[in-house]
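notes to self, project folder thing:

trying the whole complex as one job this time. last attempt i did each chain seperately and stitching them together was a nightmare. three parts in total, labels are on each line so i dont mix them up again. if this works i'll redo the older ones the same way
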Amino acid sequence: MSDLNYDRQIDRSKMQIGSEVAIEISEMNKWYGTFHVLRDINLTVNSGERIVICGPSGSGKSTLIRCINRLEEHQAGRIVVDGTELTNDLKNIDKIRSEVGMCFQHFNLFPHLTILENCTLAPIWVRKTPKKEAIETAMHYLEKVKIPDQANKYPGQLSGGQQQRVAIARSLCMKPRIMLFDEPTSALDPEMIKEVLDTMIELAEEGMTMICVTHEMGFARQVANRVIFMDEGQIVEQNEPEEFFNNPKSERTKLFLSQILGH
Amino acid sequence: MTILTDPPKESFRLSMLIYDTRYRSLTFQAITAAVLALCIWYLGNNLIQNLRAAGLNIAFDFLGDPSGYDINQRLVEYDSQSTHARAALVGLLNTVLVAFLACVTATVFGVIAGVLRLSNNWLVSKLMAAYVEIFRNIPVLIWIIIIFTIMTAVLPGPRAFRGDDPASSMLFGSFAFTNRGIYTPMPWFESGFFASASLNWLVVLAGLVVSWIVSRRITAWATAKQEATGVRPKTMLPVLAVWLVPFLVLMLVMGLTWEIPALKGFNFQGGIKIGGPLIALWFALSIYTGAFIAENVRAGIQAISKGQTEAAAALGLRPRRVMNLVVLPQALRVIIPPLISQYLNITKNSSLAIAVGYADITATLGGITLNQTGRAIESVLLLMLFYLTASLLISFGMNLYNASVKLKER
Amino acid sequence: MSDQTSTSVAFVAKDTIPPSPPPGRETGIVKWLRENLFSNIPNSILTIVSLYVIFIVLKNTMPWIVNGVWTTSSLSQCREVLNGETGACFSVLTERWNQLLYGFKYPVDQYWRPNLALLLMIVAAAPVLFFDLPRKLLLFTAVYPFLAYWLIWGGSVYVPLIALLGFVAATVVFQTFGKGSFAIGFFGAIVAAFVVWMVGGALIPETASENALLSPVPSRDLGGFMLNLMLGATCVSLSLPIGIVLALGRQSDMPLIKWVCVIFIEFVRGVPLITLLFVASVMLSYFFPPESSVDLFLRVVIMITMFASAYIAEVIRGGLAALPKGQYEAADSIGLAYPQAMRLIILPQALKISIPGIVNVAVGLFKDTTLVSVISMFDLVGMIRGPILASTEWNGVYWELLGFAALLFFIVCYGISQYSQWLERRLATDHR
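result (full assembly):
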């Protein structure tokens, strides 16, 4: 909700949008019972793109990104991630899940495992990486999110911001091609939001393909190359951030932006 | 820019049975069904072979044969010429009787002990803690046997009440505690409206129902008045009168008298006899389950945070209103579900009657009838059916309660 | 007010006030008594009533215990010694302690075997009950059941050894193949175990049990408190894995599996244990193959295990439901398959939450093992009600025997429930 401005310069040298398609969603529909949550979603994401999805609560933004790694099942239309179509085939689902990392609003770290164990779990059990190598990778990413010294603590002993950074590191340990963020800062205290956003910016600087559901408009303005506005299960408007914020086309977008940036 | 090719062809491959989320669950269920069917077939086949080898069959016509045994404690007509089905009915009613009595007294014990355990009197709360720990940690069967032993080995026989200078005397001249059971006075009506005693009691019951309805009306009137004027009229005296006056008048008109048990020959005659096994089972179940209920009550009251009481008090509510309007409604929501499962436990534990010879359904159908007829499978199946029905009824009641509480939450 | 504050709002404390003791009547034992026992009139009455109750109880039991006679050989001798005074006849305990603890048929010179088994059980249970102990001890826990079986029943050492080998083979197969595919590992393990059992069973020499190291003791010779402990420990440990499977099955979204589990759990929870024991004693043998004869102990273990696993399943279901949905989603999103997610993420947490509940079930079950006396097995209660009270020497010694039984059960059950409370306190602060 805050209109954060970052004091540091963002290094855009590696933030290049590739020509290959990372995610392609066409004519996707989803219902909860009789309630139509996602309506005719068409979205193509190229590799290296940084997309921010915003919209009022209940507009289906979370559901959309949860469909991309099959936490939710779509009922009509097609989703292709990294050349693999998301069907009922478990092998495809497993493949996509190991290619796509995800961060949740409530972190969802495993409280019974240490930070290090949280990070090495999936590489060991899903990627079948040798343990030593998995630990090295994990420490590398923990250094990257700037908490290597907490590796042997348990999630409950960390602050919210640290936990969310661990969650990001946990996803990165699987060396994903695409990262999904589901409101990663909504459950955080204001002073912790910045440390998480910084981590996400660094990720963007390295050219990661990212889709973020967030209300951090400052982040959207500075990092995203495309902002998507959703309402009532539909993509209402999408544009480059400058155009989106300065010159919104649709009435619903204007109303939303006035509410969120208004005061 | 699109990479979308044509959708993959939906041809069925065998590997889809395991890897396709649509068929995977069907596959697993098919395997389960097959294993289950195999088990049932195996067990059923063994059963048939064993029965054939023993020359038995499964039939329930033995229930129509005369039972040939007597039951002391009974609520309906029964003698040794009655059928096994009749004996089972006597047992069933006895189970219901002892379960009902024990539920009532266990609740009383449990609520008193649970509340006293939270008392700020150190001695009392420690005493109640000792009660709870001692009774919870010793098997109920041992308690039943201990209390039954007190009944039979400690209490005097009826002959101790005889003679000019008897060793024992009746409490208040009307209650006799003997090793055969407890004798209490029996109320009956001299000039009842009907010849049959039970019809007269129905009249009394009807009177009480009317009193209940009227008292509800009075409360509703008081609430309406409070809503209209803001002042709640005092209802205690009218309500008391509505309950007492009709009851007393009814008793007077119908001529209530007490039949006091008296020693005649070697035993007491008249009054109501509560057999030793019934007392042992009733008391042991109540005091044992009471310890568990005390813990539930304590947990329920403690679950209501101190903040609730303080908030209500800060609003200016009197302690009694704080209890009635804020604490109790919330505490009951926590207490009642475990309380009902304790009732379920009492019903199931009442089957221990067989250890002290109280003729409940386990002792009649699962004990004597089973041994006399050798119809093990049929008897045990009927027995389980009865307890299952009882449990399902009680859990149905609990679900209804839970649903009603849940609705109030929204 | 306002003009006053405008003149002198500023205030600075010049010196710190040292702490001083409260007024005299607010300290020491007087204060404690006033606050805890006599704070107001109803409270004082309650205190006096409580004191009176305690006095009555002590007055009636103390002389009985203090005057107790420990050295006679029958009740009539006790009465002679007491000479009309009140006093307990504890001689029955000194005389018959071995029957109360081991049953009346277990060979006296072999008592060291169950004693050793009990001692080792404490060692085996320790790493399960206390997380801080080295995990390597769990290896002994895994071997213990086979060792205990051999110690108590005796006979050929080959039987428990081959049973153990079967499980070892299964574990090895599962470790090797389970990482690739859970299903292959799982079914491979079952096959491996059966192969070992079949081959091993054929290899056991016919004469093995005749010249065995430990003389064989048949199940019907087991009794006393030992039988209660054995039934309790065996059935609780067997019912845990079954309970976990039932709880997971009840959560399943496959209707058939879900309903099979629901019906089993609700059926078992709906009937009293005694009816299940009736099944064990009179009905279950009809369901075994005609030529086989399964002994009563095993049949009772089967039924009590069924009973306990339904209750444990419900406790674990509560633990599963208490986990936030996010844990399932996070496990899914990093690509763990169902068996992996359960084993690595969900069950470790759910079981930890359920431990107090499981302990409660275990205590309840241990108390319920006394019910086997109803189907004429001679456990502690069965021994008291049967052989001992029926004997001519001790006919009429109720309180000493029942009190002893109550005390034994109280010590074990109270100990376990104290452990459970300690654990609850510890879990409440653990890592969260």
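what i see at first glance: Chain A touches chain C through 29 residues (CB under 8 Å).
need to look closer tmrw
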